[in-house]
Design goal:
Strand content: 15-25%
Shape: globular
Structural class: alpha/beta
Number of helices: 6
CATH superfamily: HUPs
Oligomer: single chain
Helix content: 40-55%
Bound molecules: 4'-phosphopantetheine
Largest sheet: 5 strands, parallel
Order of helices and strands: EHEHEHEHEHH
CATH class: Alpha Beta
CATH architecture: 3-Layer(aba) Sandwich
Number of strands: 5
Radius of gyration: 16 Å
Number of domains: 1
Length: 168
């Protein structure tokens, strides 16, 4: 049985992430998606919210499990008895960072390999960061994520706005 972990921030998940998860679920027996808890990026959604969003969005894929994690991706891989770390590659601009991360992970854990899935062309431009930017300015989000994730994002943006107004 080959288990893959797919670590990431998923703040929130996009069609690009869901495409990688779905395709990984075909190639590997089990895919454990790891939602990074201690991100230096100060995420918009809490780790519980990001996990729940992903659980809902992948509920129809039986061999996919969603879990929060702390610390190193290679440790998360070992804890889940995974032989493989999966990452998506959208464009050449992703490559340098992803290569460095894969090489670091290989030094830390030579028994865990990184496998890159190239993102489907229709999602090549999609990122959580850009989706949040479009959401902040009220743009059309329908090409970025499924309706329930868009709703969660719009609710969160409204919550942020209300909090700001209450402080002022
Ligand atoms: O979705 P992201 O933000 O591109 O995911 C990045 C992630 C979570 C895969 C990366 O930051 C990570 O692996 N963090 C855990 C810490 C770690 O293992 N660092 C060593 C590899 S650089």
């Amino acid at each position: 049985m080959v288990t893959a972990v797919y670590p990431g921030s998923f703040d929130p998940a996009t069609y690009g992430h869901l495409d990688v998860i779905r395709r990984a679920s075909v190639s590997f027996d089990r895919v454990v998606v790891g939602v990074l808890h201690n991100s230096a990026k100060s995420p918009l959604f809490s780790v519980e919210e990001r996990v729940n969003i992903l659980k809902k969005a992948t509920r129809d894929i039986p061999n996919v499990i969603i879990k929060p994690f702390n610390g190193l991706s290679v440790n998360f891989a070992r804890e889940n008895e995974a032989q493989v770390i999966v990452r998506g590659l959208r464009a050449v601009t992703d490559f340098e960072y992803e290569l460095q991360m894969a090489q670091t992970n290989r030094v830390l854990a030579p028994d865990v390999d990184t496998v890159f899935l190239t993102t489907s062309l229709e999602y090549a431009y999609v990122s959580s960061t850009i989706m949040k930017e479009v959401a902040r300015f009220g743009g059309d989000l329908s090409k970025f994520a499924p309706p329930e994730i868009i709703q969660a994002l719009q609710d969160k943006m409204q919550e942020e706005k209300d909090n700001k107004e209450n402080v002022q």
